[in-house]
Prior knowledge:
Strand 17 (554-557) and strand 18 (562-567) form a beta hairpin. By secondary structure, the protein is an alpha+beta fold. Helix 11 (245-256) packs across helix 12 (262-276) and helix 22 (522-529) packs antiparallel against helix 23. The strands form 5 sheets. A 5-stranded mixed sheet has the order 2-1-3-10-4. A 5-stranded mixed sheet has the order 7-6-8-5-9. It has a 5-stranded antiparallel sheet with strand order 12-11-15-14-13. 43% of the residues lie in helices and 19% in strands. It has 4 domains: 24-100 and 210-300, Periplasmic binding protein-like II (D-Maltodextrin-Binding Protein, domain 2); 107-204, Periplasmic binding protein-like II (D-Maltodextrin-Binding Protein, domain 2), CATH 3.40.190.10; 330-469, 2-Layer Sandwich (Beta-Lactamase); 482-651, 2-Layer Sandwich (Alpha-Beta Plaits).
Amino acid sequence: MIKNWIFSLTLLVASVPYALSSESVTLQLKWKHQFQFAGYYAALEKGFYAEEGLDVAIREAEPEMDPIEVVVNGEAEFGVGTSELLLLHNHFKPVVVLGVIFQHSPLALLSSASLPESNLYSNIQQVQDLRNKPIMIEANSAELMAYLSKEGLSRDTLKIVKHSFNTSDVMAGRVAAMSVYTTDEVFEFERLGEPYTLFRPKDSGVDFYGDNLFTTIHELKHHPKRVAAFRRASFKGWRYAMDHPSEIVDLIYERYSQRHTKAHLMFEAEKMKDLLESELISPGYMTSKRWHHIAKVYVEQGSLSADYSLDDFLYRSEEGVSADLVKRWGLGASLITIILLSFLAYVWRLNRRLDKRTSWLRTVVDNTPTAMVIMDSQGKIIEWNHQAEQIFAWASEDIIGQSVYDYVVPLGDQNKFRRMIANLFDRREVKVAEGWSRTNRNKLVLCEWHYAVLQPGRVVAMANDITERKALENKLKELAHSDALTGIGNRTLFFEKLEEAIALAKRRKERVAVLFIDLDDFKIVNDQYGHEVGDVVLCEVVQRIKMAVREADVLARIGGDEFVLILHDCESNAHARQVAEKVLFNLERPLQVAGLTVTVGGSIGISMYPDNGEKTADILKSADRAMYEVKQKEKNGVGIAPPRSRLGKKAH
């Protein structure tokens, strides 16, 4: 029976590559060969696919081709698609997302900022200026449509024309804007020194994934090992490509395509770093929560039914653990830990002498990805496996016989740890806890610990180092709620905080003010000095706004040069105006940036809860309208939205 247990456990913890006979599969790209698909070239050329027993053909997209249909129709086993895959899934297309490459989509709209005044499209300063003007938007760009809708541009106000994929059409003013990848077409404008304006969905809270690796339900059902192998090798290729961009640029240029120069390909590689978050996030990482956020945007824009489902849409590993978990073991390690703990307790009770038969057990235990420590009731260490050496940096010969309190448990946690051990002996149950542990590297690691009692008077403790995973989770939470450039809240955080402020004000019978701040003529700063200077100016603007408000007030960036401010417990319109005027005073002072003197002003609209409604959207719209009226009349001023009752009288 022990042999059967060990055999089963070994199968669970072992990682055996899927590499039998070589199988031929095709990957359908969504565009032409370029650095955008670098990881797949790396996986092929470095032999990662071959190691998994796969013979992979990488096929670039052809004109008029729909890459998703190619995969769905069985002409390719795998493909690369946008977040529009979610819409297709809910329209009964059998697609399954295997992982995400771009944590933030590079899709945007680009317009020229250097057209002569005589050109009809010469004064595109904000996305609303694209209304009823010709825009080239590529297929499968539902996120752009969601963004435009969110900015008040319904489909019937858009004049969408066939995409030429030629930047000269924008430079020459033949169209008002075109959809681009910020990693690609922007290069031509920068190479030629042509000023441009980018309208990015992310600036309005439409922060989608980009370039999702996908397959079909049929492929996953009939070839699960092949899918797992392809996925594994692909993401290994992406890790290699982002670590060796120059090598992969040479590879693409020499073997795949000379459509782009090496300088263009390196531009792509550099721009992709931030979008992939490659230094922090493993290739392929995705969360169901983020997909729900994407779905919510589609629902709000009417593109997706409110009863949408993610069932069968997101890849899950064979163990049943979500594929979006970080690192190789993730939560799977916790599952293995619990099974192994139960097994150890069983073996110890069955055979206290631990004779030769347990050498099998020793082999398994020493090769698990989980640290194992066996101690007595006083904390004296009796066993210390190889993974414990790796995590805590203490060699087994140095630590066996020592006290866990002297080497592992932090001083401030020792009393709590003693109580926990005592309770273990009383209750005879498996205890799971997270906590910081000391190491021989003069630092702490955050571990997920599992404890169980062994007879007689022994405790087995098994630990997984979750320091990186927790840091990643915290970073992702921060990314979901913060503006990448300025570090303040984004649109998502603003609406959450405004809902909280309204709920609190309702209970306390208080008022809440919202200030909509739009910088005046900020486009001129970008056009004259470039986007890098513009970014520095935006960061300085944030600091100056903060100087005018209380720490408890909430500042967020909801557009390129648009900010909103929530004032809690605002006594009156006069108090809100006083704060707004203080903000304007701070903004009017000249900025010194890169040896330049830059001056910006602002137009501010104010709305109040409950005067302008009880819904967040109504309050924001009222502030937006008040700001717009200021900007139309004089700029650099403050306007207060009239209460709803007065608006009603005007309508009559």
